Amino acid sequence: EKNAMLAASKNARPPPPARDLLFSLLSSLCIECFRALRHTVRVILRPLLVPRTVASREPLPDAGCAFYEGRVVHKRHAPMAHRFEYAVRYCLVDLDATHPQPHCVVGQLSSRLSAHEARKMCGTDGRVHLLLLPQSAGYEQNPICVYYCYDVAGVP
């Protein structure tokens, strides 16, 4: 029994040196501090960078998209009362934009109507905008996508 314990202790890996543990702890702390600072800067700058305008018939800003924040509220009365709400951020994308589409929706556009297809279905010949929830953390949830099709004069 004593020999078995000696053999097991000889085969066991020695604990890492204290300096390795300290380096690992400090590097993790630095990375998390950087992430917290980056998030704080984004939260502070977001109101200055994200347009909060109402949808218009005019072409979207140079970015080819605009973001709109809102809340979804669901309330059920029967068979039992239930209510919840959550924040949403929709992206209004100009499907006729000549520059690259926003990164947050580019993967989603291949499964949606193109501007040409939407115009053909609606019988219009102007700009087409698509309102959808941008993908988040690799997950797409779009309970509804809305196409805004305009004629050449900008009338829906």
Describe it.
- 37% of the residues lie in helices and 22% in strands.
- The protein is of the alpha+beta class and 156 residues long.
- The protein folds into two domains: 2-49; 65-149, no CATH class.
- A four-stranded antiparallel β-sheet has the order 1-2-3-4.
- A hairpin with a 5-residue loop joins strand 1 and strand 2 (82-94).
- It holds the Pfam family DUF1365.
The helix tally amounts to 4
Rg, nearest Å: 26 Å
Mean pLDDT: 77
- Largest sheet geometry: 4 strands, antiparallel
Enumerate the strands of the largest sheet in spatial order, edge to edge or round the barrel. 1-2-3-4
Total of domains: 2
What is the H/E order? HHEEHHEE
Structural class: alpha+beta
Q: What general outline do the C-alpha atoms trace?
A: elongated
Strand content: 15-25%
Give the % helix: 25-40%
Q: Extract low-pLDDT stretches.
A: 52-57
> What is the count of β-strands?
4
Ends apart, CA distance between termini:
86 Å
Pfam families: DUF1365
Condensed summary:
The chain has 156 residues and is of the alpha+beta class.
